[in-house]
Amino acid sequence: MKLSTISIAAAAAVMSICASSVASAQSATYVVEPTHTFVTWAAKHFGTSTSHGRFDKKSGTITIDRSAKTGKAEITIDMKSMNTGVAAFDKHLTGDDFFAAEKFPEAKFVGTSFKFDGDKVTEVTGTLTLRGKTNPVTLKSNGFGCYISPFVKREVCGGDFETTITRSQYDMSYGLPGIPDAIRLNIQVEAIKQD
User: Which of the residues 78, 118, 166, 181 could staple to 57 if both were Cys, CB 3.0 to 4.6 A apart?
Assistant: First the structure.
C-alpha cells in the first residue's frame, strides 16, 4: 500500500514537471535579426510624389507564448541612421524640423498586446516613443510565419507589419498641411529564437 502511494505521488510529480515543461516551452524569446529587419516610412509630398525613407540601425527582442496567446515586443530604432538615399534630405529629416535626432537619438516601440489567428500573430498593440512623446499604436500583420534557418540552425519568426501615425502628436508639424500629418510606417521584422 505504501509503495502504491509513493508510486502515485512520484507519477504525479513527474506529470507535473512534464506539464510545466510543456507550458514553459510554449513561451519563447527571439532576438531581432537586423539584416532582415527594416523600418520604413512613406509620406505624400505636397500632394504629388510619395517620399520614402528607412532606418538602417535597429535592435530588439520579441517574446511569444503561443499557448497563452500573449507576447511582448521591444524594438529600438537609431534615429541617426535615417537613409533616403539623399544626404541633404537625411540631414533635414534628422534635424529639428522632423526627428531631432541629436536630442532624441532613439525611438522605441513596445508591444504589450498580441492577437493571434492560431499560431500566427495578426496584430500587435503598444506604444511608440518618438521625440520624447509616447502614443498608442497598433501594428497590423500582412503576413507572419516561422521557419528553421539553414544558416543559424534555429527557428526564425517574422512578418510584415504596418501602421499609420499622426506626426503632429510627436511634435513634428513642419510643412503642414502640404506634407500630410499621417505617415505610414512599415516594419518588416525577422527574429531568431534564443535557447
Answer: 78
Query: Using one digit for the tens of pLDDT, what is the confidence trace for 103-153?
Result: 999 999 999 999 999 999 999 999 999 999 999 999 999 999 999 999 999
Q: In 3D, which of 11, 39, 19 has the Cα closest to residue 163? A: 39
* CA atoms of 112 and 134, how far apart (whole Å): 14
Q: Which segments within the chain are labelled E, that is strand?
A: 27-32, 38-44, 50-55, 58-65, 70-78, 82-83, 106-117, 120-130, 133-148, 155-166, 182-193
Q: Give the other-Cβ count within 10 Å of 145's Cβ.
A: 13
Question: Cβ(193)–Cβ(157) under 8 Å?
Answer: yes
Residue 71's Cα: distance from chain center in Å? 11
Q: Which three cell numbers stand for residue 71?
A: 507576447
Read off the amino acid at residue 90. D
State pTM to two decimals. Answer: 0.84
Query: How far is 188 from 24, CA to CA, in rounded Å?
Result: 28
Q: Is the dihedral of CA 128, 132, 134, 137 positive or negative?
A: negative
